[in-house]
Amino acid sequence: MGKAYFMGIDIGTFESKGALVDANARVIASHAVPHNMESPKPGYAEHDAEKTWWGEFCTISNKLIQDSGVSPSDIKAVGCSTIGPCCLPVDEKCNPLRKAILYGIDVRASEEISFLQNHYGKESIFKKCGTDVTSQSAAAKILWIKNNEPEIYKKAAKFITGQTYLVAKLTGNYVIDRYTAATFVPIYNMETNDWDYDNLGLFCRADQLAECKWTHEVSGGVTAGAAKATGLSDGTPVIAGSADAGSEALSVGVFDPGDMLLMYGSSIFIIHVVEKFTVDKRLWAGPYLFPGTYAVAAGMSTTGTLTKWFRDNFAKDLLQLQEDGRANAYALLAQEAGAVPPGSEGLTVLPYFSGERTPINDPKAKGVVFGLNLLHTRAHVYRACLEGVGYGIAQHFDIFDEKGMGTKKVMAVGGGTKNDVWLQAVSDISGKTQHIAQEAIGAAYGDALLAALGIGFYKDSKAVSEVIRHKKTIVPDPKNTQLYKAYKERYDKLYQLTKDLMHTF
Description:
This protein is α+β, with helices and mostly antiparallel strands.
């Protein structure tokens, strides 16, 4: 094949990022572009698809080629990902008819969600789709457009997500990967891994949805017009792409049943790969990126945002040092927490400061700091916050074990992995070893590896997994794991004993 490079570009909520990867899976160029999220009304979240999604894709693509000095003809394939199940109506020429409605953070379709739950029945939806209709459902957003913007609805040739839009702009073909399509609850059929064609009528016509493919499947070549806009060569293969979480998981080697992604971001997000469709009302279920694999997903609401809240309100002295360029406030807080013994000397925090998603699925849950006495310091409370997240993560591991999911490898990613105290606490509490990958650029790196897999540069997922290098491994301390058992039991009971009171305020 001669020289071979692969491009991946990811469009996030507040930033787009790209990576150019060589034949040895090393990043030779990267570039990021920040952008804003628009919120025209409370509960609304939107992006300008043409300006933000396509415009920044073109900017990043050209920048990667320019900075690397790589000939466009040596870029053998392209992959892209975007934020999850968005909804964008476009005309016959792929021109957006309105701003893109974003994923679960846009909650405008609450009436449509209630209608769908009553129309189909929650149990029926869960049985078919493995999850409930929530604000994550792109199908509910289509219905919202139908009910609230009838003129736009009538003009729409397609209702698509972010990566479908980018692939269409690049190739002229409308495709969606099955991992993302499954979020169109309740119009995706898990048995056929395709649209539920018998039940589309309430939402749209079949031809208004993209063709379902697997994430790494080649979906077309770059057109002459797209080549001019992006700097890529005419005909360069483009894969179907995925939602950002799937690409992030692949970027650190989460491929096969037993592999798990643990993402430490503003919230915790978990993807556990399983070999069969596995449902549990405490979790979310769907297909994974490749044939014969499925995913069980989960998410906690307030994790990185909790540490930020603590820093901003109770560590202003450390923030001042950071602003003076003398230290990092998070690093200093972690250092303080590291001096406190495991268990925070009897202090327990329920991290439900914005309600909680899995496993309790209680939007009315409240944060709790329990067990305070006059000996406790700022360091104790901060460590207890970190441990509270750890107990919540461990609850998920318990469910995975209960369901026989056979967790073999846990790959940790995200900003929270910079905090060694937090990582060690999570491993000690759960008894699970965590691995950190060498390349931490995220979903864009996964997109590039998927593109290489899609054109056969890598023979299979095992071959891709072998190029993922590990930077460090966090092994649980058995003594601490034993010590934490009682604290974890207290954590579990504390919510059960206080939830009724939480719901009254």
